[in-house]
Each structure stands twice: as C-alpha cells, then as structure tokens.
Amino acid sequence: MSAAFVTGGSSGIGLEAARQLASAGHDVALFARDPDKLLAARNSILNDAPSRRIEIFPVDVSERDTMLAAIDRALDIFGAPQMAIASAGIAEPGLFTEQSLALHEEHMAVNYFGSLYFTRAVSDAMITAGGGKIGLISSGAAFFGIYGYGAYAPSKFALRGLAEVLHLELGHKGIGITLCYPPDTDTPQLAAENRTKPVATQKITKGGGLWSAQDVAAALIEGMNKDKFVVTPGFQIGALHRLTSLIAPALRWHQKRIIRKEEP
Ligand SMILES: NC(=O)C1=CN([C@@H]2O[C@H](COP(=O)(O)OP(=O)(O)OC[C@H]3O[C@@H](n4cnc5c(N)ncnc54)[C@H](OP(=O)(O)O)[C@@H]3O)[C@@H](O)[C@H]2O)C=CC1
Ligand SMILES: CCCCCCCCCCCCCCCC(=O)[C@@H](N)CO
C-alpha cells in the first residue's frame, strides 16, 4: 500500500490534501505541532476513509533534528511515500517598522526551512525507492512585493527559488516537484491573519480571489498526479504567474493608490 506524508496535515489545505489522499487509497502520516489537532484530524480523515492507516507525528517542522527523526519514524512504518506535501506554514501580516526580527526568523524557519528539511528527507527516501512526488506550497504573495507581507512573503519567494532548482535537479531522478501558488484560501490561518491584517493588505490580496481549502488541495494533487511543475489556482494567479515582471510597475501603482487611501 502506498503512503502520503503531509506536514501541516492537521488544518486547512494540509488537512484537506491528507483527506483526499486517504480517500484515493493512500495511508497517511500527518506532521504538525498540536497533538490534539492532529488527533481530531486523524479521526475526521478516518471518518471518510475508514480502512486507511493514519499515523500522527507531533513535531515542529522547524526543529531540524526532531523533524528528521519524526520522518525517519514515519519511513520505518510506511516506507518511502509516493506523495509528500509540505503545507505547514505561518503568516503574520504587519508593517516592517512594527514587526520583530524574531518574527522574520520564525517565518523563514517554519515556511522555508521546515519545507526544506521535509523535502530533503523524503526525496532521499524516494530516490532510493525509485520515485515519488513532492508538493510545495508557496503563495500568490511570492510574485511581487505586497504591502504588509514583509515577514511572510520572503519565505514564500525563497521556497519558489528552491523548488525551481529542485525541479531541474530531481526531475530526472524520478522525483516530481509541484509548486502551488494559492490566493487567499478559507482556512483557520486566513481567519487568524485577517484579525491583524492592514486594511490595505486585505484590499490588495482580495484581487486574487478566495478559494476553499478543498479546491486548493484538489488542484495541487491533480497537478502532482499530472507531473505539472506549477499550479496556479484561479485566473488571477495564473495571469500573475505569467505576467508579473511585465506588469510590476502597474502592480506598484495599483498598491500605492490603495495605500495612500487606507494607511495615512
Ligand atoms: N490560507 C491562505 O490564504 C493561504 C495559505 N498559504 C499557505 O498554505 C499553507 C497552509 O496554510 P493554511 O492551511 O491556510 O494554514 P492552517 O493554519 O489552517 O494550517 C497550518 C498547519 O501547519 C501546522 N503548522 C504551523 N506551524 C507549524 C510548525 N512550526 N511545525 C509544524 N506544523 C506547523 C499547523 O498545525 P500546528 O499549529 O498544530 O503546528 C497546521 O496543521 C501555508 O504554508 C500557508 O502559508 C498560501 C497562500 C494562501
Ligand atoms: C494591475 C493591477 C492588478 C491587481 C491584481 C492584484 C492581485 C493580487 C493577488 C495576490 C494574492 C496573494 C494572496 C496571498 C495570500 C496568502 O499567502 C496568505 N493569505 C497566507 O495565509
């Protein structure tokens, strides 16, 4: 039986991806910090896919050695996964002059290095096993600098840089890399960030549309199955992906208009 490993699998996009992979016949390993949320996620997935094996691994993806040890335990149980998705992430919007340096470091540690440790460990195992597919979640905020995302966006730009290299280096070793750029997606994280998000940031990101976690997860998994490198949910994100360097001056002009009005 083939397995799927999912970080951030206890909530939002990761939980929906894990649920869809279990329903498609995969056993699943879930990685996230809060054991209670992991248990609830396991029960909810088992409800939809009762005959699958679902194991939970309470771990902080940014703690390198404990994370690698947790993946080793999952590899002992399941062997190399056929599918692996790194969805664990944090997003705290705010202004550069008001955010702490520690918060910048935390975004890189979780969103970038957490995804990197996971990718390194599962790709090593997949190469030995003869192949596999890895899904990484960047963001629509990784195409151009968006007001209010000084701590968050760079971690997603970095992930994009890594994925572009891995697509080239691992592709011919039988490892598919799929990079997803979701717009705002209706998850607990979006609800939490909206409580402190500057009004200008909300108005700017609204232009990307609002997706459900189910639909983003489905688009990512479909992209992985079809060996697509890039998944862009929605026409706005698709257009941004193709056009950003061309329309960068227009995107700055568009934001400055909103910022002048909302952030005196
Ligand atoms: N929602 C949105 O609008 C968008 C989201 N994204 C990206 O999609 C991904 C998923 O986001 P979303 O589903 O909205 O978020 P949620 O907050 O709903 O879920 C995040 C998951 O990541 C886990 N997680 C967070 N920090 C850590 C950590 N340090 N170690 C291990 N697990 C961690 C959480 O569990 P726990 O807290 O228990 O650890 C939870 O399972 C993120 O990378 C996000 O940046 C991209 C674009 C838009
Ligand atoms: C010429 C003028 C055209 C203007 C169009 C502007 C469209 C911008 C869309 C960007 C959407 C980015 C959402 C990121 C969400 C995210 O990553 C967080 N919610 C994470 O939790």
UniProtKB/TrEMBL annotation:
It comes from Shimia litoralis. The keyword Nuclease does not apply. One of its GO terms (cellular component) is membrane. It is an enzyme of class 1 (oxidoreductase). This is 3-dehydrosphinganine reductase. GO terms for molecular function: 3-dehydrosphinganine reductase activity. Its EC number is 1.1.1.102. It comes from the Bacteria. Keywords: Endoplasmic reticulum, Lipid metabolism, NADP, Oxidoreductase, Sphingolipid metabolism. One of its GO terms (biological process) is sphingolipid biosynthetic process.
